[in-house]
Queue: 3 jobs
Job 1
Amino acid sequence: MDRVILIVSTICFLAAVVHTVIELRGGVFQPMRFNFFAVGLGFIFQTAFLSIRGHALGRCPLTNLFEVFIFLAWSVALIYMLVGPAYRLSLMGAFTAPLVVLLQGFSLIAPIDVRHPVKLPANPWLEFHASISLVAYGAFALACIAGVMYLLQERQLKTHQLYSIFYHLPPLPDLFAAITRLLWWGFVLYTLGLVSGFFVGHPLPYIQMVCAFGVWILYAAILQGRHLRRLAPKRVAALCIIGFSAALTLLWGITFSAQTHPLP
């Protein structure tokens, strides 16, 4: 039943992608309202899936890579729903939906939904550590998407080849302001995730922690460079893409189960 709900959610996001492609092929790019509605509906079904899976497990649904991918897709949609209207970036739906479709489509096709028997009580600190880290990933993902939008618009201005999508992109200053805010939100949430990892009651894998601190240092350097104006907006946008790509390599370390993380 829960997978059916997830499939419906994926179809909603796919509808936004298809609508965008049709608009682009027709030379008229006006997908904002439809995309926001489609993403919002998909988000509702995502939430329903996570709720059902969480009640079935008796804990936060992050016990395998399948659930981590879905939680990440939910985090991306959540951050989009929060910041899209606020910064007039509803066009972000045209860029956000393909990422969610990719994450959920892969999760549904790949044999990664391996159930782990939970024999011990859930660890609240461990669940907070994992969940807040993935919500931070959602902010980093949106910063990455905004970075792609920034570079796309900057390139069109530089080459003087203006396509229909150009006229629906927010101005470069607005995009860069959104990138900065998303970076700060993600950084604060990611910092909370790292700090909470010290309260789980047992040591986390050493390699995982080193990589996690590496990603934290990378984003701290980006924000520091932005604050000191040592990084040009174009470079910040490019580093957002690089940073999120690096953060994705840590997904394997966010999963947890009673067997792999026993309580003392």
Job 2
Amino acid sequence: MAGRRRARTGRGWDAAPPRARKAPVRADPTGSGELDVDAPLWTGEEERYRRADKPTGDAAAGAGGPALGDPAGNVAAGGGGAAPADPTEVAREICLRLLAVRPRTRAELATALRRRRIAEDVAAEVLDRYDEVGLIDDAAFARAWVTSRHHGRGLARRALAGELRQRGVDGQVVGAALEELDPATEATTARALAERKLRGMGRAAPEVVFRRLVGMLARKGYPAGLAVSVVKDVLAERDTELAAFAEIIDPDALTDLIGETGEPAGEV
């Protein structure tokens, strides 16, 4: 009589391979494209909202029911011929889902509606209404952006202006928001950034230290003159060797370290 087969233990050659775990998604509360490793993980609901402004294709529409941005609201063949969705309601839902994640500029919402194939007149009607009730406020968005990105990332006026223009904020609105960031505050932040980076650099040649500090400030949008002045002061207070190097720095030589784009030349 054949022996009884032993029950599978789930271990050994006949064990099923482990199921791959989906990598968690980190939040990007600012929308700059940089992942914030200190932020909490997104929940499944937030991840669904995060994808709300992505364009839909034929595959998405055929996955079951009408696509969110399909103004016609057509169902798949054989689905029963449901009534078309109201384009205005579809546009409102798209905007509300995006605004539930974070504030958006009017241009950002208009781009999302265009990707979802919402007619321009419908989009304009919905966005005008949201302007009236305060759900869209580019001026408030710009002020909050300047405060958050300056204190959180140490960005200077030039870098902040570029980010706001990329999000479709009007130039006059950008200028008004940047007026709240005065030169004294900008200089104080630049000095704090240079001091913090210098503490983590260890021992290096004075010219290397100088180039890295100036390059870091240049990438954050600080003017060349301010960057050199701040770095000279920080080096002068560090030790005797760096102080002696700071004394011989020629501010006019900065053009050899920072190109026309504001990026430092060489290693940074």
Job 3
Amino acid sequence: MADPYQTLGVARGADDAAIKKAYRKLAKELHPDRNKDNPTAAARFSEVTGAYDLLSDTTKRAQFDRGEIDDQGNPKAPFGYGAGPGGGFRPGGGRGGFEFQEAGGGDFGDIFEGLFGGGRRGGANPFGGGGRSRGNPKGADMAYRLAVDFDDAAALKPQRITLSGGKTVDLKLTADAVAGTPMRLAGQGEAGPGGAGDATVTVEVKPHRFFTRDGDDVRVDLPIRLDEAVKGGRVKVPTVENAVMLTVPAHSSSGKVLRLKGRGFHRRDGTRGDQLVTLMVDLPADDAALAAFVEGWTGDQDRNPRAALGV
């Protein structure tokens, strides 16, 4: 029998915040989408999810601590008999990386149940299960991938998704979802005798033609003219939401990085990363006047800009 405390790597007296923090870390490391060639990671992901499901439920945790149930939520029957096939937990829980409402305005409320909350499915059965009865199994779970434009993901713009049954749902993205945490839609899977299964949605951020992501920051190379680099000035630069004006300092070389505060990806704490703008001096291919100027320019010929490289 596995000890859920050991599975999550927390002490038996750990509070809810410590348990949630440990689960977030392990779920991110072990999620199958990040370990497609590692079946061991997928098994561990299932273990830590089950452990978190038990320990985040106050009643189940107390029963486990008293030795009344095992790590699967099954009662410890006398004389060594198990709880039977109805026992166990299914991963699920409280609100996660999406808030959503039905397209057209109907509020779905708490239909999104993600990995990191305290909600639970219906009442317990005699075998310790989370609402599934032995005679009436729920329908199969469904998995979805939602490809989101880079700009929309950074700005957390609402998205629309159509489920397999044809239902259209408007989603409000959050930082957790954009970070790759799969979210659970309770009751949105296939129908079954005991009710519908669940659905999970994993957000995939599409690559951008000129933006790249660096943690919570966004990077972009910005071409500037030679006169803009030498004299400095105000230039227009794109961001994930709109174009803004940026001040280029005089005598700026290619590779100089300027920072636009709060123009990156949203963080879980409500703050945002920055946009890092790398200046790239763009010279015209054939400019006779520029070539003539350089021919007659002697002010910088004795300087070696590569000296720091040892050449």
